[in-house]
Amino acid sequence: MEKRYKWGILAPGKMAGKFTNALKHLDNAELYAVGSRDLRRAEKFAADNGFRKFYGSYRELAEDPGVDIVYIASPHSHHREQAILCMKNGKAVLCEKAFAINEREVEEMISEASRNKVFLMEALWPPFQPFYRKASEILESGIVGRLLHMECFFSFNPPFHPDDRKFNPELGGGSLLDIGIYPVIDALTFAGVPDGIKAYASFGKTGAEESVSAIFRYNDGRMASIYSSFRTNAGIGCVILCERGRISLSRGRDMNQTVILEPDDMEKETYVFNPPAMGYHWEAGEVMRCLDDGLTESPVVPLSFSRNLIRTLDRIRHDAGIRLPQD
Ligand SMILES: NC(=O)c1ccc[n+]([C@@H]2O[C@H](COP(=O)([O-])OP(=O)(O)OC[C@H]3O[C@@H](n4cnc5c(N)ncnc54)[C@H](OP(=O)(O)O)[C@@H]3O)[C@@H](O)[C@H]2O)c1
């Protein structure tokens, strides 16, 4: 019989709500417990979503012997400390992006996972999504030839509030770790780790970076342009320019994912995907599949990918002069 896993939600904010909706699509996921800094918030989230238990501290959640997997959805500034707390208590951990603030913190998390022989994965949705898989399939087919250049972007224009985690440096604020991480994931996935990086940033009233522009250079002549911002509204997408055509990927406001294939000498083809629950259930399903197989990391989102990702984010921050208090 299929094992059912008891999920604990740590930090019931906006993203935790979306992720919980995704868990509801999985028969082997049990909505078990919620941990918040505030007991009433935990109680309300548990009641709204059908969790059995709720706690007014993250420690009580981490120490509950019933919890199999903790999903961490606090601001990035707290991921390291909370992931370590959960792993010390033997829990499998799925932790939101950015995995942590910098490479040093991510290495501490990875060491703790290996010390406790527990599963750890960064909650990255792109590798599981149909538009990503389609683009990989097209590139591998060779129909448009070799990738030469990428234009990768994610920007939106949220209301400014100095205490909002997006604008608060103490909470890891800034566009790069919040949304710029996606254009970086695009480049790492389709072009690999860059040999050189040039980056620039502009900063807002709180001192947090609000826009970043970077160029990745590869020794074989390929390049990728990375852009993220809280000041413009470009949405999320990536254009892959190849020897004999282009591939454009985007995710719309309606969450539809689109891939447009435009070979130079053939008709254009458009593919549209609309996964349920924004596709977050795939990463949750991956955690449970890995646990079924006795794995401590995911072959789809391995810790080596998270390591490359945070190192690349650190390199961009270093070149652009973006410092965070945790550095
Ligand atoms: N994968 C995705 O598509 C995606 C999308 C959005 C966000 N995220 C990630 O998810 C994480 C949370 O983002 P969010 O938008 O859900 O944030 P949010 O709505 O602000 O929620 C964060 C929660 O963290 C808890 N928290 C703990 N310490 C805190 C502190 N010092 N200040 C503020 N909140 C604190 C709070 O819950 P309690 O006080 O109740 O414990 C709060 O509700 C971030 O790391 C973000 O990058 C991922």
Write up this protein.
The mean pLDDT is 97. The longest helix has 18 residues, at 303-320. With 327 residues, the chain is an alpha/beta fold. The protein has helices at residues 14-23, 39-49, 58-63, 79-88, 103-116, 130-141, 175-190, 280-292, 303-320; strands at residues 5-10, 29-35, 53-55, 69-72, 92-96, 120-123, 147-155, 196-203, 209-217, 223-229, 235-242, 245-251, 257-263, 269-273. It folds into two domains: 5-124, NAD(P)-binding Rossmann-like Domain (Rossmann fold), CATH 3.40.50; 126-279 and 309-320, Dihydrodipicolinate Reductase, domain 2, CATH 3.30.360.10. It is globular and about 60 Å long. The protein binds NADP nicotinamide-adenine-dinucleotide phosphate.
Outline the fold blueprint.
Elements: E1 5-10, H1 14-23, E2 29-35, H2 39-49, E3 53-55, H3 58-63, E4 69-72, H4 79-88, E5 92-96, H5 103-116, E6 120-123, H6 130-141, E7 147-155, H7 175-190, E8 196-203, E9 209-217, E10 223-229, E11 235-242, E12 245-251, E13 257-263, E14 269-273, H8 280-292, H9 303-320
Parallel strand pairs: 1-2, 1-4, 2-3, 4-5, 5-6, 7-10
Antiparallel strand pairs: 7-11, 8-9, 9-10, 11-12, 12-13, 13-14
Helix pairs in contact: 1-8, 4-5, 5-9, 7-9
Bound molecules: NADP nicotinamide-adenine-dinucleotide phosphate.
